[in-house]
Amino acid sequence: MRVVLDAMGGDNAPHVPVMGAVQAVREFGISVILTGDEELLKKELEKFSYPSEKIEIVPASDAVPMDEQPSKALKRKGSSIHVGLELVKRKEADAFVSAGNTGAVMAISLFTVGRLKGVDRPAISAVLPNLRSQTFLLDVGANVDCKPFHLLQFAVMGEAYARYVLGEKNPRVGLLNIGEEEGKGNELTKEAYALFKAAREKGLNFVGNAEGRDIYSGNFDVIVCDGFVGNVALKLSESLAGILAKILREEIERHFISRLGAVTLKPAIRTFKKRIDYAEWGGAPLLGVRAPVIISHGSSNAKAIKNAIKVAAQFAKSHLNEHIEENIQKYGKLNGC
C-alpha cells in the first residue's frame, strides 16, 4: 500500500507533513511518497530516523498557496497536489492525502482522476464523535447549493463509507433537519425526504430526520446535509471541542482540590481529550472521485497527518469506490437519471 502525501500542503509544511509521514511509516508500516521541493524534503527527513525504503520523494516544482482560487490552482501543473494525484491516476500509488488548499485539492482531483460513474457531485465528509462511536457527516463544504438527488447521492456514498471503512454493519442514515417529523424543513429537505423513503424500499437504512443534537447522540451513523449547513455544523463542532477542553483545564487549575481530583481522573480526562481530538480522525474523505483522497485541516499536527495516511490506506483497501458505483446505479433510478 502506497500513499502519496502532499508535503507542501498545510500551515506548517513541510516540517509537519514529513513528521506525520515518518510516524505513519513507523507505526503502521505504510509506504509514503512525498511530493514537493526535493531539497527541502531531504533536509526535513534528515531530522528523523525511519526505514528509508518506506519513504520516497517525488519532486514537484510548485506549491499551491492556501488562499489561492481553485481556478488558478488548476494551472499549476507542477504543484505538489497535481504531481501527487497524477501518481494515483497512473496507479503508481493507491491514495492521496493533503492538508493544503481544500478547494484546490477538490478541483485538481476532479480534473485529474475524475468522478465516479453516476456521481453528480463529490462530497467532503467528516467523522465526528458521538455517545456510541462516531457519526459520519456529509457534505461539509463542497456543495453549498444542492438538489434533492444530490443529498440522496451523499447518503449512498456516506452509507458505503460507514459500512466498508468504519465497519458499521447496517449504517443508520438520517437527513439533517429542523425537526424529526416528515413534513419539517425547507423544500430541499422535504423533497429529499421523499427520495430517501423510496431508497429505503431498495435497502437504504434511512431512519428519518436528524436534528442538530443527533450529530452527537449516537442515534445515527450517517447524517446528510448540504455543504453550507454541514460546514457550519463542522466549524461549530471544532470550536466547541476546543472550548470544552479549555474550560475543563481552567476549572481543574482553579482550585487545589480540583488539581488533586484531576490526578485520580487523569485516565478519564486523557480518554475524553482523545475522543474529541480531530487529529484522531486524520482528515475529511473526499467521496465521489475515482481515487481515495483525504483532505486534512490546514493546521493539522503530525498526529493528524499520520492518521490521515492510515485512513487513506484503509479507504484504498476497502475497495469503497466500487461499492459506491454499484449503489449509485442501484438508487440512481429514483431521481430519474
UniProtKB/TrEMBL annotation:
Keywords assigned: Acyltransferase, Cytoplasm, Lipid biosynthesis, Lipid metabolism, Phospholipid biosynthesis, Phospholipid metabolism, Transferase
Compartments reported by the entry: Cytoplasm
Predominant localisation class: cytoplasm
InterPro entries recorded: FA_synthesis (IPR003664), Phospholipid_synth_PlsX-like (IPR012281)
Gene3D superfamilies in alphabetical order: Isopropylmalate Dehydrogenase
One GO cellular component, as annotated: cytoplasm
Record keyword Transferase present: yes
TM ranges: none
Catalytically driven reaction(s): a fatty acyl-[ACP] + phosphate = an acyl phosphate + holo-[ACP]
A GO molecular-function descriptor: phosphate:acyl-[acyl carrier protein] acyltransferase activity
Domain of life: Bacteria
Keyword Plastid: no
Associated pathway: Lipid metabolism; phospholipid metabolism
NCBIfam families, per the entry: plsX
Oligomeric and partner information: Homodimer. Probably interacts with PlsY.
Function noted in UniProt: Catalyzes the reversible formation of acyl-phosphate (acyl-PO(4)) from acyl-[acyl-carrier-protein] (acyl-ACP). This enzyme utilizes acyl-ACP as fatty acyl donor, but not acyl-CoA.
Protein name: Phosphate acyltransferase
Organism per entry: Phorcysia thermohydrogeniphila
